[in-house]
Design goal:
Oligomer: single chain
Helix content: 55-70%
Number of helices: 51
Distance between the termini: 46 Å
Strand order of the largest sheet: 2-3-4-1-5
Structural class: mainly alpha
Largest sheet: 5 strands, parallel
Strand content: under 5%
Number of strands: 8
Radius of gyration: 34 Å
């Protein structure tokens, strides 16, 4: 699939609905506008929807067209007329009106009416214009008046108002129609508001619309279609997978989320382009940066055609904007091209009008107030151009995409493990509880409905069936309820109630697909039955089709705006979709209806917590405990929020209340211990952790945290025992291995046995590190001190040189020599060892990590020394053994991230990075100079260079994340 192949007009209505994610709020606004007002009057308001190519404008317009045609009420009031994306034959208002009437005849099946009018229209459109230019324009103007009059006659006879659904209005208004024609079009639309409205799309708002005094100034309502966020992309791909029944895709989405996020930056969240990513995920198990960029190269026919549309002068400007900084002034572009600034300025104006570029104002050091910078409107065009000209591996975009993916992988893992979360157990407990309450509410309200209907019926037989149905539902006797529901469907007046009962029984048996079928039959019989719509939404939610569930709840609140259940369930669905802002609005609506509902307060607090708005979360959870004082989950969650605010006393107060209510809440005990650690009350902390492991013996976090408390008390032997217990539960717990190594180092007096134990534990921490994390540098000094005290260089060298020593033993000796700081010996001996044919990359892994740790330590303490340069060269050699040739660049990019993270903005040395890149290039490893620009921008984000590069989404994301992380070390404490 290439971008120019995807045409929403060719899609079924069902597919358009299933894949509609961009512009939902705009569509709702349009739908409300088109509904008849007081006295059944119809709106005169016209609309423009703006956004870049592929943003979903055509999808929205096509869906609106088909929605109107399918809606019984609106289709009796409006005739929507949809046109191709490009109206090539339209070069005047006369031709536009001919096109409109032609389309009206083509799309309307009233043959009796149209056959009479077609003859008249055939004469009108065969108008022959002759004479001078002025005479021809006058004749065209008169002919346009006649066509407009004819159109109004059709409108009157057909009894419906027209909607012209026009795309690319920026072209129609700037190139295809003159200002005089636009002025005439507006005047007749204002004089005859009963005729038609325009709902159009445009890449941008042009002067004819936004500038005072121009023909259509203040005529249109303008809405911009938002492109997809990170989570919106995941949602869109999930919708596509569900619609096309690609059951294997959901697992791939989870595994490849960092690459999906990177693709969003490359494409700007463009839905049409995301279908390319969908294809790639469908055909590939594991994504890579190369695969993603190769997929973008599939757009070559589309971009090539677009580029050829531009004149040669415009093309060289586009090339300058693709290869230079993303934002440049006219003068800078002219200097780069060696052209006259005036002619370049003229071309830039045209490119802006045609939708190729943006004109932006920047603020920063060395930037004048009136300076205008220009950048390509479609970022993925810049990506494509650079790769097309330089190859994927050589393009700066490859380097940046790799860096972003690494950062996203780190971010995702940190989100799962970080102390700023409620913890997976806490989340599970909260969500399970919410679901249980939700189900209870559903069944209770359904049973009440059955009872109520029973009281209202007159016929004894039907009454008896309703009584039985209510009783069976109350007792969860779903098989008997199915029988009763089936009987009710045989009564014409109660058929819908029968399907409702069948749906409820199916839902109770967790047969959600079956429940949906029954509920759909029920609402087909009574489309305003809010109870059925709610149950239909819940059934969709049980199948994790949250978007479909939300549509059901929205239907409910359109019918009954104060329906608590609909707002509550809608909030649940948005919570699952991680749209926390919208979820909060839903729960607020629910609370307006039922102020003292503790479950809505609880769920709203959860969503505030996910948004890191801890104070607001606390307010919500405090409302929960004011309503239900025995809710231990709410009490300890308040404690978590205070912990995140570093208010440990308040956290302890709330954790205490939680464990008084539920002494078996091991999470609350663990969190209580963490807060005591924060107050340096380590003995009390240990008591809490011991309580937690007495409840749940295999509680990794509690054993790990207890080890830390003992470390703080210098009880290193006890700390080691705790870490051993933690590792017995989770062997890959690299934090426990690392801290255990530290504890062995701190035992006095130092012994060879303890050093060896420390070394072994340290080695295990390296083996189990997530791939994005490097050695924890805090321990380097401790290891070096103890090694120097108990292990002499001669002993290491003797081991290294011994004839009978195996290759792994020799590598171990090199690692020990690095700890002793004996770099010369390592460099002299390693060359020969690394050339050994029997050596495997896995055997080199430990040496690589020790070398990297040593190098990072030197970069922090002595970045300009000769030793630093030597160890950098050695690191490159070890990389060449451990990594494949095409992986070395990626290894350096990861190393670059680690360097910035430990160095911090103040210590960050541009010279160091330049030296590293230069040295690696001398060794044949091609490293992008874009890394230098990243360092400059982190050091001075307000510089002119930083501001010019900020227009590149990949670049901006890298700088943002690295700026936030620089100077920070890993925090191994968890809550």
């Amino acid at each position: 699939m290439t971008i120019n192949k995807y045409d929403p007009r060719l899609k079924l209505h069902e597919e358009l609905n299933a894949l509609f994610v961009c512009g939902e709020s705009i569509l709702k606004e349009l739908w409300v506008s088109l509904a008849p007002g007081k006295n059944e009057s119809l709106t005169n308001q016209s609309w423009i929807i703006t956004g870049p190519r592929g943003a979903g404008k055509s999808h929205l317009l096509t869906k609106l067209y088909k929605d109107i045609k399918a809606d019984e009420k609106l289709s009796n009031l409006w005739i929507p007329l949809i046109f191709p994306e490009e109206l090539y034959g339209v070069h005047s208002l006369f031709r536009l009106l001919v096109k409109v009437i032609d389309e009206l005849f083509r799309q309307n099946d009233d043959m009796v009416l149209l056959s009479k009018k077609k003859v008249e229209f055939a004469k009108l459109k065969r108008a022959d214009f002759s004479g001078t230019f002025k005479q021809r324009k006058s004749q065209q103007h008169d002919a346009s008046k006649k066509l407009f009059k004819f159109l109004m006659q059709l409108r009157k006879e057909m009894g419906k108002k027209f909607i012209l659904l026009l795309e690319n209005l920026q072209m129609l208004f700037t190139e295809q129609l003159t200002n005089d024609e636009l002025q005439f079009l507006r005047s007749v639309m204002q004089e005859h508001p009963e005729g038609f409205i325009i709902i159009g799309t445009a890449l941008s708002v042009v002067n004819q619309i936004e500038v005072y005094g121009n023909p259509f100034y203040h005529f249109f309502k303008i809405r911009r279609i938002d492109q997809l966020s990170q989570e919106g992309m995941v949602q869109f791909i999930s919708l596509a997978a569900s619609y096309y029944d690609d059951t294997s895709l959901h697992g791939k989405i989870k595994e490849n989320r960092p690459y999906i996020y990177t693709f969003r930056l490359l494409t700007g969240g463009n839905p049409r382009l995301i279908l390319l990513l969908y294809e790639l995920l469908r055909d590939t198990s594991c994504l890579s940066t190369e695969l993603i960029l190769e997929k973008i190269m599939d757009l070559t026919p589309y971009f090539k055609d677009r580029t050829l549309e531009a004149s040669p002068q415009k093309r060289i400007i586009l090339e300058a904007l693709a290869f230079g900084p993303p934002a440049q002034t006219a003068t800078e572009i002219a200097d780069y091209l060696g052209e006259d600034a005036g002619s370049i300025m003229e071309q830039l104006k045209r490119l802006k009008t045609e939708g190729w570029i943006n004109g932006i104002h920047l603020e920063g050091e060395g930037i004048r107030k009136k300076e205008v910078f220009y950048s390509l409107r479609d970022y993925f065009y810049r990506v494509w151009y650079k790769m097309r000209s330089g190859g994927i591996d050589e393009a700066d975009v490859f380097c940046m995409a790799e860096l972003v993916t690494v950062l996203y992988k780190k971010e995702e893992i940190e989100i799962r493990a970080a102390s700023c979360d409620l913890g997976q157990d806490g989340k599970k407990l909260m969500y399970t509880r919410a679901l249980e309450l939700m189900k209870d509410e559903t069944y209770v309200s359904s049973i009440e409905r059955l009872h109520k209907v029973s009281e209202e019926q007159i016929e004894t037989e039907v009454n008896d069936l309703f009584d039985k149905a209510a009783g069976y539902a109350e007792n969860n006797d779903w098989d008997k309820l199915m029988v009763v529901g089936e009987k009710l469907t045989h009564y014409n007046d109660f058929e819908g109630d029968g399907f409702f009962a069948l749906g409820l029984a199916s839902l109770g048996q967790h047969k959600n697909e079956q429940a949906i079928r029954y509920y759909k039959k029920a609402v087909a019989l009574n489309c305003d039955d809010v109870a059925v719509w709610n149950c239909l939404g819940i059934s969709y939610g049980e199948l994790n089709k949250q978007e479909m569930a939300i549509k059901c709840y929205e239907k409910v609140v359109m019918i009954q705006k104060d329906n608590y259940d609909a707002w509550y369930y809608m909030g649940q669905s948005y919570t699952v979709l991680k749209k926390h802002d919208i979820a909060i609005k839903c729960f607020k609506k629910a609370l307006e209806i039922k102020e003292n509902d503790d479950t809505s307060w609880f769920n709203m607090g959860y969503n505030f917590a996910e948004l890191q708005e801890h104070e607001k979360a606390i307010e919500c959870f405090e409302n929960v405990v004011s309503l239900k004082k025995d809710n231990d989950t709410a009490w300890y969650t308040i404690g978590v929020m205070y912990s995140l605010l570093n208010k440990h006393e308040k956290a302890i107060e709330n954790y205490r209340k939680a464990v008084v209510i539920n002494e078996g809440n091991e999470i609350a005990w663990n969190n209580l211990g963490v807060s005591y650690n924060g107050l340096q009350k380590y003995e009390k902390a240990i008591e809490c952790f011991q309580k937690a492991v007495s409840i749940t013996k295999d509680y990794y976090d509690a054993w790990y945290n207890m080890g830390r408390s003992n470390n703080f008390l210098n009880k290193h032997e006890k700390a080691i025992e705790c870490y051993k217990n933690a590792i017995a539960i989770k062997e890959n717990g690299y934090e426990a291995w690392n801290n255990m190594a530290t504890s062995y180092c701190r035992i006095k007096p130092a012994t060879v046995e303890n050093y060896q134990n420390a070394y072994n534990a340290y080695s295990n921490s390296i083996i189990h590190l997530p791939y994005f994390i490097t050695i924890l540098l805090a321990n380097i000094t401790a290891y070096t001190d103890i090694a120097a005290a108990i292990f002499t260089p001669s002993q290491s060298l003797q081991t290294l040189l011994a004839q009978e020593t195996t290759t792994p033993d020799k590598l171990e000796a090199l690692c020990q020599l690095l700890l002793l700081g004996k770099l010369t010996t390592v460099l002299n001996e390693a060359d020969e060892l690394l050339k050994t044919e029997t050596i495997t990359p896995q055997q080199v892994k430990k040496l690589l990590f020790f070398t990297e740790a040593y190098l990072l330590d030197l970069l922090e303490t002595d970045p300009g020394s000769k030793t630093t340069k030597e160890i950098l060269g050695f690191w490159g050699k070890v990389c060449s053994v451990y990594y494949k040739e095409d992986e070395i660049k990626r290894a350096f990019q990861e190393f670059f991230i680690h360097y910035i993270r430990i160095a911090g903005k103040e210590k960050l040395s541009l010279g160091v990075v330049e030296n590293m890149i230069t040295q690696l290039k001398e060794e044949g490893i091609i490293i992008s100079d874009i890394l230098l620009a990243i360092v400059r921008c982190i050091k001075n984000p307000n510089s002119r260079e930083a501001k010019k590069w900020s227009g590149d989404p990949l670049f901006a994301e890298i700088v943002k994340q690295l700026s936030e992380q620089s100077g920070k070390h890993e925090d191994t404490v968890r809550i």
